[in-house]
Write a structure and sequence with these properties.
two-stranded antiparallel ribbon; Aminopeptidase; twelve-stranded mixed β-sheet; GNAT family N-acetyltransferase; alpha+beta; globular; 2 domains
Length: 274
């Protein structure tokens, strides 16, 4: 059995969809993020080919500055436990070196011991455990509050004053962004930072699949007012739920449950410093 890895191209799209359908029948999104993964992000989608046919894939993305992120690791079920996942990790590290990344992370479900073991085998360590909470979005058509976007030029100066109030990571679409210098400029460039004239702050948005959830990694100020505005943005985007990921031991989880959120699932994020 000959296993080789290479960067995925547009001609591999149908094979990638096939692999994901077999590996993750209930959580498929590769077709939705295809252009973003191949043409709009810094980093490659890597394919593992067995005797010339695609049987596995994984994505490396630069988050911001020298932080990287591993995601969408998929191996077709007929070819699992044959070392394909490790081959993808080997390719990851080659691409990580080319991008000169200094810290790289990934996430997995708390119950996914196979994914955790493979990451730890390659030097990753569990850094945090998070709980996702969800709240169905109410259908409203008018903006309840006068929030405005923070510009990219002002993003770092604006957000840095709130870094001490944040958890270790800002989480959007289960992507964990370390809270560090440069984060504010990056988030503002994505149009994810909102504020009003009363010092209320919302970080919110989505990387992909807006129909599933509008993600809220951070709020500061009048919680009810900010949640109403987030609900408006989510409704406007066609999202089904508001989503938050909070540290598993956070006392804020109970607060948000009392505001209509429900606990969904638990995740861990693992990182390696290079």
């Amino acid at each position: 059995m000959d296993i080789i890895t290479r960067t995925i191209t547009d001609s591999d799209r149908e094979e990638c969809i096939y692999v994901e359908k077999g590996a993750m029948p209930h959580n498929r999104y590769i077709n939705d993020v295809w252009n973003m993964f191949l043409h709009e992000s810094d980093g490659d989608l890597i394919g593992a080919f067995v005797d010339g046919k695609l049987q596995g894939m994984g994505k490396l993305t630069r988050l911001y500055k020298d932080y990287g992120w591993l995601e969408t690791l998929r191996v077709h079920p007929d070819f699992q436990n044959l070392g394909i996942g490790q081959k993808i990790y080997d390719a990851y590290f080659e691409h990580i070196e080319k991008l000169n990344l200094k810290s790289v992370g990934m996430y997995t479900e708390m119950y996914n011991t196979i994914s955790k073991h493979l990451a730890e085998k390659n030097g990753f360590e569990v850094k945090a455990e998070y709980t996702e909470i969800l709240k169905p979005i109410r259908n409203i058509n008018t903006n309840p509050e006068k929030f405005k976007l923070v510009s990219k030029e002002n993003g770092e100066e604006f957000l840095s004053q709130y870094y001490d109030y944040m958890d270790d990571y800002i989480v959007i679409n289960r992507t964990f962004y370390p809270v560090n210098s440069g984060l504010g400029e990056f988030l503002a460039s994505k149009n994810w930072i909102y504020t009003d004239d009363k010092e209320n702050v919302l970080i919110g948005g989505y990387r992909f699949q807006p129909e599933k959830a509008f993600h809220i990694p951070f709020i500061k100020g009048d919680i009810d007012k900010i949640l109403d505005f987030a609900n408006y943005l989510g409704c406007k985007a066609g999202s089904k739920n508001l989503s938050m990921l909070k540290p598993a031991n956070s006392t804020l989880i109970d607060l948000y449950v009392n505001k209509g959120f429900s606990i969904d699932d638990n995740y861990m994020t693992l990182w390696i410093d290079l």
